[in-house]
Specification:
The protein is mainly α and 371 residues long. 71% of the residues lie in helices and 2% in strands. Strands 1-2 form a two-stranded antiparallel ribbon. Its main location: membrane. It is found in: Cell membrane.
C-alpha cells in the first residue's frame, strides 16, 4: 500500500477542504477586524507559496523575496495615491510638495491610469526577476551564493528607496488617503469584498502552482533541484528553468504585495526589510518547503502565533520561534508536512497485509532468471 501522502487525488481533496474552510470564514464571522486580519494571513500564505515554489521545488534559496513583494507593494501604493489626486487641480502628492518638487515625476505618471498601475505593479518585479535571475543562473551561481546575492540586492533596494525620499517619501512611506477604487467602487479594506479578493488571489496562486509542480516543467525543475548537472547532460537548459521558476515566485510575491497595500492602505521600506524576507523562509521551513499547502499553513501558524502570543511574550517570542525552527530543521527536515508524510507512511505499512511484501515463488524464480 503506497503512502497516501503522495496520492494526487488525496492531495487535491486536502486542498479543496482547506479552501472550503477559508471560504466559510466570512459566513462564520462578520467582525471586520477579524476579516481584515484573516485576509492579511492570506497575503502571508501567498508569500509562503512563492518561497515553496522557488526553494522547495526549484532548490533556489531566495532570501530576498522582499524585492518582488516590496516593488509590487510600492506599485499598488502609487496607484492608490494617484487615484486620490486630481490630474488637473492637484496632480502632485502632498509629500512631494513637502520635498520641494513642483511637478509630478515621470516615474509616477503611468500610475495615473489604474489599469496600467496594476500591470506595472506585477510586471516590473517579474521583469526584474527575469533579468537578475538570468544573470545569476547563466553564471551557474547556486546554493548559498544565491542566498547571498538576493540578500545583497534586497539591501541595496531598501537603501535606494530610503534615499529617494522626494519620490518615495523615504522611511515615512506612502499612505493613500482613500481605499482602492476598483471598477468604479471603493474596496473597504475591512469589508467582505477585500477578503474575497485576497481569497481568490490565494486560491488562484495555489492551484496554479500545484498544477505547475505536477507538469513536465515541474518535474524537470524538481530534478534539477537534486542534480542540476545530470539534468544539464540530458539536454535541458537548466538556467532557463531556474529563471522561469524564480520569476514565477517573484510574480506571486508581487501580487501578495499589491493585496497587502489594499488591506492596510500603507507601504514603506518595512516591506523590504531583511528580517521579513528571512521570516518567509522560516514559514516555509517550518510548514514544509516541499509542500505548497504545508508552507502556507506554516505562514498561518507563525504569523498567527506572533499576533496572539507576540504581545504576551514580547522579545521572548523571537527566541521561541528561533528555537522551534532549529528543532524542526534538526528533526523534521521536511517540516511539519514531513511529519504528516511519515505518519501516513507508518499507517500504510501497518495496514499492508503481511504476505503482500513476499513475492510469489513463480515471480521469485522469474526474477532470479532475469538476474
Amino acid at each position: 500500500m503506497t503512502n497516501l501522502y503522495h496520492n494526487r487525488s488525496a492531495q487535491w481533496i486536502v486542498y479543496a477542504l482547506m479552501f472550503a474552510f477559508l471560504a466559510a470564514i466570512p459566513l462564520i464571522t462578520n467582525d471586520s477586524f477579524l476579516l481584515n486580519q484573516f485576509a492579511t494571513y492570506g497575503v502571508y500564505g501567498m508569500l509562503a507559496v512563492s518561497i515553496s515554489l522557488s526553494w522547495g521545488f526549484g532548490g533556489i534559496l531566495n532570501l530576498g523575496q522582499g524585492i518582488a513583494f516590496g516593488l509590487g507593494a510600492y506599485g499598488m501604493g502609487m496607484t492608490m495615491q494617484m487615484q486620490s489626486q486630481d490630474p488637473v487641480s492637484n496632480p502632485i502628492p502632498p509629500f512631494m510638495l513637502n520635498n520641494s518638487l513642483d511637478h509630478l515625476p515621470a516615474l509616477w505618471s503611468p500610475f495615473q491610469n489604474t489599469a496600467l498601475g496594476f500591470i506595472l505593479s506585477l510586471a516590473v518585479p517579474t521583469i526584474f526577476y527575469v533579468f537578475f535571475g538570468s544573470l545569476m543562473f547563466r553564471a551557474r551561481v547556486s546554493g548559498p551564493f544565491i542566498a547571498i546575492m538576493t540578500l545583497a540586492m534586497l539591501t541595496a533596494l531598501y537603501t535606494l528607496i530610503l534615499d529617494m525620499q522626494p519620490y518615495t517619501n523615504g522611511a515615512n512611506g506612502i499612505a493613500p488617503p482613500a481605499p482602492l477604487k476598483l471598477l468604479g467602487a471603493e474596496i473597504d479594506p475591512y469589508s467582505v469584498a477585500s477578503y474575497w479578493i485576497v481569497y481568490g488571489a490565494l486560491l488562484f496562486v495555489t492551484v496554479a502552482s500545484k498544477l505547475i509542480t505536477q507538469s513536465k516543467f515541474g518535474l524537470v525543475t524538481q530534478a534539477l533541484r537534486s542534480d542540476p548537472e545530470r539534468v544539464r547532460f540530458l539536454g535541458y537548459n537548466v538556467a532557463s528553468y531556474e529563471t522561469i521558476v524564480y520569476a514565477l515566485s517573484g510574480l506571486i510575491a508581487a501580487l501578495a504585495g499589491c493585496c497587502l497595500v489594499m488591506l492596510v492602505q500603507y507601504v514603506s521600506p518595512a516591506q523590504l526589510d531583511v528580517n521579513f524576507s528571512i521570516g518567509m523562509v522560516i514559514w516555509a521551513g517550518i510548514g514544509g518547503r516541499f509542500s505548497l499547502i504545508g508552507s502556507m499553513l506554516g505562514a498561518f501558524l507563525i504569523q498567527g502565533g506572533q499576533s496572539y502570543l507576540g504581545d504576551q511574550f514580547l522579545a521572548t517570542w523571537l527566541l521561541l520561534l528561533g528555537g522551534f525552527f532549529i528543532l524542526v530543521v534538526r528533526f523534521l527536515p521536511k517540516g511539519l508536512a514531513g511529519l504528516l508524510e511519515l505518519s501516513l507512511g507508518m499507517i500504510g505499512a501497518h495496514m499492508q497485509p503481511k504476505d503482500a511484501s513476499r513475492p510469489q515463488r513463480g515471480a521469485e524464480a522469474t526474477s532470479k532468471a532475469e538476474a
